[in-house]
């Protein structure tokens, strides 16, 4: 910037004053960004026009502090651009190639101008769509709750306690680094709440469910659950009260899931610090959202079976 321009901006330019900005806060205007120092008071000599001013905030750190480079490598997110609209890519095909496919599948070849007689037949005329590369996060698949070859009795036992699924996931997906699971929990939540990606919400629900229903794992992975409570606390501060309520049933899946979560934390083998943190979290949710964790969800209620005498 030459001296004449600098003097003009000093006289004519705008001044943006920011006081008491915490040391190290990321501050930016347009394409310029800095980590502020102890003497930062604002920006001067701003030329006329529209400007974009932004800064980082602690809230973002609390929503992403477990998302590490190791996790991003595991999920193959390098170069991924997420979108609220699913990006699909059509395979190259034409009428002749689709007719050839039907011949290979022993289906009669029809004139494409003729009216289709079934949904399956109509779909055969459509282009084959696939997910466009680098447009979605490849989340880990939550394992089933019981091992292969489990007896009927074991299937019942494992279905009531998802500790096997959680332990299997920690071992096979995260190489026994259990806090990476919380990173995926945070990533899926951020992708949904910021990026409006529904797949992120679905993955978040699955991870919350497997963490909440793992009765024995609460004892094995107590540090994981200490950190999990902090993660959920900051996440739930970002959502409206009725966000998780099913419109049709008026049932909140999260209250039912967290009922089990708090029930599992109230175990004599769980250390006092974890139980106290769980109790504070429960009290906070009750006060903030008016959620009632004192009564069992409907699925635990006794069922009256009426028998008809013949």
TrEMBL record:
Pfam families, alphabetized: AAR2 (PF05282), AAR2_1st (PF20981)
Residue ranges of domain AAR2 N-terminal in the record: 12-57
InterPro entries assigned to the protein according to its UniProt record, in alphabetical order: AAR2 (IPR007946), AAR2_C (IPR033648), AAR2_C_sf (IPR038514), Aar2_N (IPR033647), AAR2_N_sf (IPR038516)
Entry keyword Ubl conjugation: no
Entry keyword Oxidoreductase: no
Annotated keywords: mRNA processing, mRNA splicing, Spliceosome
GO cellular component, as recorded: spliceosomal complex
Boundaries of every AAR2 C-terminal domain copy: 142-294
Highest taxon above the source species: Eukaryota
GO biological process, one term: spliceosomal tri-snRNP complex assembly
Annotated coiled-coil segments of the chain: none
Subunit structure: Interacts with PRPF8 (via RNase H homology domain). Component of a U5 snRNP complex that contains PRPF8.
Functional note: Component of the U5 snRNP complex that is required for spliceosome assembly and for pre-mRNA splicing.
Protein name listed in UniProt: Protein AAR2 homolog
């Amino acid at each position: 910037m030459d001296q004449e321009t600098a003097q003009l901006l000093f006289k004519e330019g705008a001044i943006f004053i920011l006081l008491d900005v915490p040391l190290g806060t990321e501050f930016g205007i347009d394409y310029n960004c800095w980590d502020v120092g102890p003497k930062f008071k604002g920006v001067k000599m701003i030329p006329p026009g529209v400007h974009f001013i932004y800064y980082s905030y602690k809230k973002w750190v609390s929503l992403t502090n477990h998302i590490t480079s190791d996790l991003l490598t595991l999920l193959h997110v390098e170069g991924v651009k997420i979108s609220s609209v699913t990006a699909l890519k059509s395979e190259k095909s034409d009428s002749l190639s689709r007719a050839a496919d039907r011949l290979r599948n022993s289906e009669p070849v029809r004139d494409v101008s003729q009216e289709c007689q079934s949904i399956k037949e109509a779909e055969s005329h459509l282009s084959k769509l696939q997910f466009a590369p680098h447009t979605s996060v490849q989340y880990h698949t939550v394992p089933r709750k019981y091992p292969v070859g489990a007896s009927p009795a074991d299937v019942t036992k494992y279905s009531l306690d998802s500790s096997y699924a959680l332990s299997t996931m920690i071992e096979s997906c995260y190489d026994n680094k259990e806090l990476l699971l919380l990173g995926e929990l945070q990533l899926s939540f951020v992708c949904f709440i910021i990026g409006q990606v529904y797949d992120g919400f679905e993955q978040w629900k699955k991870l919350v469910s497997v963490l909440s229903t793992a009765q024995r794992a609460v004892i094995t992975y107590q540090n994981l659950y200490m950190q999990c409570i902090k993660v959920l606390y900051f996440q739930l501060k970002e959502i409206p009260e009725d966000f998780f309520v099913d419109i049709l049933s008026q049932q909140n899946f999260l209250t039912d899931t967290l009922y089990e979560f708090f029930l599992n934390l109230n175990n004599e083998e769980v250390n006092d610090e974890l139980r106290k943190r769980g109790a504070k979290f429960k009290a906070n949710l009750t006060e903030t959202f008016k959620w009632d964790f004192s009564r069992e969800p409907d699925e635990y209620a006794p069922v009256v079976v009426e028998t008809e005498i013949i």
